[in-house]
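Handoff note, outgoing to incoming analyst
You'll be picking up this chain. Sequence as last confirmed:
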Amino acid sequence: MSTAQPTSPSTKLTPMRRALTTLRRVLPWVAVSLFLAQFSAMVGLTAYESLRKKYRKLRRFPPTAPQPIPVADNEVTVYTYGEHLFEDMLEDIAAAKERIFFESYIWKADAVGERFRDALAAAHRRGVEVYIVFDEFANLVVPNSFYRSLPEGIHIKRHPLFTGGAAFFLPSHWGRNHRKLLVVDERAAYVGGYNVGQDYANKWRDTHARFSGDMVVELENAFVDYWNHYGGRPELPQPRRRTWSHHMRVHRNLPADMVYPIRNMYLEAIDRATQRVWLTSAYLIPDDTFTRALVQAAQRGVDVRIIVPHFSNHIVADWVSRVNYEELLRGGVRLLRFENAMVHAKTGTVDGLWSTIGTANIDRLSLAGNYEVNMEILDPHVARRMEEIFLLDSGNCTELTLEEWLARPMINRVTEGILSPWRPLL
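Most recent structure output, in case you need it:
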């Protein structure tokens, strides 16, 4: 008579082990399904946006005339229309006598891009030292022949697609060069959101500023430090002098050193606010701490308003940014959507005293990823100018209310949920 062998404890599956085994089988399928859903959503949104752009009619937005504002020993001129900005930049390049530092995230090979190329080439031919930086990834669609047409002897540095070799997988090597700078002869310096191209001349609403006086050397230093860090040749000497300004300060994100002061600059200003916080951002994807700072300001009675594009040039970023909308609206933050044109500005003004103009968006890529430059300005006259510009832009906006947002279609909510895992990456 045979005797039944007892089941080995090691082969007997407990409910917990059965659940874990099932989970291991299911998780890969869930991950693949989520990825396919996200990919499908991105493809669908991109196709829809291409169709929408084809048939939409853009209208002119209200520009403001650039006017110099004295700030201590400096002058600050704020630009909100590309044609005005580009004419003044080209005029300064034409007047250069010694050295030009030119840095642009995007430099298109169109009529405007060619004007800048020709102006820089002419400066070089008359003996001016010309140094150029642009981001390789952002200009992948620009023909190499455009850059090769620059005269030999102009010093060019492309921010490479990949840096650090095998160390590329470390976050310190992920940053793109998103900066837009022009420095001429320690006499004039420009910084802001404008890239160089025809669309930016009259179709996009952006903000840039020209500085003359002591602060020019600080923006010069920002260019020199980047150039030397990435092995630009020849190595540039440090500026002959620096300045301690009580009114303005340059803030630079340096991914290679994992230093990101622009985010803290914003958080400090928002935390100090007692009256108003008015921001304009091309891509609004704040992290939890930034969102909390905005809501806390609104809840203590500060007038918090943010201008964003109703439809930006990156449709996926639009949808990812909307994940934050309900929390912001419930917290008392007012969202104003700029209509019929892309608003690409990266600016803010607080309490009629503090302002910033620069290259950093309110998203992870800018505040904790890319090379960026923002100028912080403590001056009531500049703040008044920034408030005037904000109010003028507000007249071209529609305000998004909480009631309107909660009534959005279910398909929109589902799409936002599918894309929400990308929020920490953008």
